[in-house]
Amino acid sequence: MMILGMSLGQLARAREKSIESGWLHYVPGGKSKAGTYWVTIPEHAQGLGDHPTDEGGEVGSAIDTEAENDRQTIDKR
């Protein structure tokens, strides 16, 4: 919470929204036992590139370039 600068309530709301949107799986812990979290990829985001993007570039440009390179490689075969 301190690293993120959030209160307990803010963290709980952010966690719930992440779960609802399909980006996070959460198994609550118990007394003296931490919960378990792992990242999930929602169906609508399957197939999106996971390479870094540059804030100075156009949104999606890296994905578009990669897809075009794949098409050119296939065409050459």
Give the integer mean of the pLDDT values. Answer: 80
Helix content: 25-40%
Percentage of residues in DSSP E strands: 5-15%
Shape: elongated
State the low-pLDDT regions, or none.
none
Number of individual domains: 2
> What is the string of SSEs from the N terminus onward?
HEEH
In DSSP terms (H or I, runs of 4 or more residues), the helix count works out at: 2
The strand line-up of the biggest sheet is: 1-2
- Whole-number radius of gyration? 19 Å
Terminal-residue CA separation: 52 Å
Q: What oligomerization state is this entry in?
A: single chain
How many strands?
A: 2
- Most strands sheet: 2 strands, antiparallel
| Alpha-beta classification | alpha+beta
Keyword list:
single chain, 77 residues, alpha+beta, 2 domains, two-stranded antiparallel ribbon, 2 helices, 38% helix
Please describe what this structure looks like.
The N and C termini lie far apart (about 50 Å). About 0% of the residues are buried. The chain is α+β, with helices and mostly antiparallel strands and about 80 residues long. It has two domains: about 1-45, no CATH class; about 45-75. The model has no long low-confidence stretch (mean pLDDT about 80). The chain is about 40% helix and about 10% strand. A two-stranded antiparallel sheet has the order 1-2.
